[in-house]
């Protein structure tokens, strides 16, 4: 099994996956296992849907901004943090950057993994655009309802702890322990690879 380099850039999507189950990044990055696409993976938000959701919130004051440029599908990368990802959208003003994420589900409630992945985009955008990131938004449902997330010191610390935990697991040749519940395992595409799961 090839050793995982600590300097290798991590996809930000691994953060959400690690929070769901620490084994998923290991299967992905160390064992290079691709279980194939699942139906829900094709249920992303289209460009048209994003524009519709944004139109519902076109007054930038709702985001705490008065003038900003909207950038979509932004590739973000930090050589220093060895982290990268593609953010759904960014609002870039003279003073700050504001990451946006889009979800189709009308009753969507961000979980810890979603929030941490969005925080990673915020931290990467700060470095790339040389502007602070203090807030982020998840837009959900066909009306583009908003959930605001504050990027504070506690969230930044939590993010870096998770990134370090992922790197530690990827350096270990043993499959990480999993605290996942049976309900989580039942919806995991890697279930067939876990010999200790029912």
Helix count, DSSP H or I runs of 4 or more residues: 6
How would a textbook summarize the main sheet? 6 strands, mixed
Averaged pLDDT = 85
What is the gyration radius calculated from CA atoms? 18 Å
Give helix and strand order, one letter per element, not per position: EHHHEEEHEEHH
Beta-strand residue percentage: 15-25%
**Which class do the helix and strand fractions yield?**
alpha/beta
Helix content, binned percent: 25-40%
End-to-end CA span: 26 Å
> How many individual β-strands?
6
CATH class: Alpha Beta
Oligomer: single chain
* Count of individual domains: 1
CATH topology: Lambda Exonuclease, Chain A
Architecture (CATH level 2) name: Alpha-Beta Complex
The rough form would be described as globular
Brief rundown of the structure:
With 198 residues, this protein is an alpha/beta fold.
Q: Explain this structure to me?
A:
This protein is an alpha/beta fold and 198 residues long. The chain has one domain: Lambda Exonuclease, Chain A (Alpha-Beta Complex), CATH 3.90.320. It is 34% helix and 21% strand. The protein contains 6 helices and 6 strands; from the N terminus they run βαααβββαββαα. Strands 1, 2, 3, 4, 5 and 6 form a 6-stranded mixed β-sheet that branches. α1 crosses α5. The radius of gyration is 18 Å and the shape is globular. The two termini are 26 Å apart. 29% of the residues are buried. The mean pLDDT is 85.
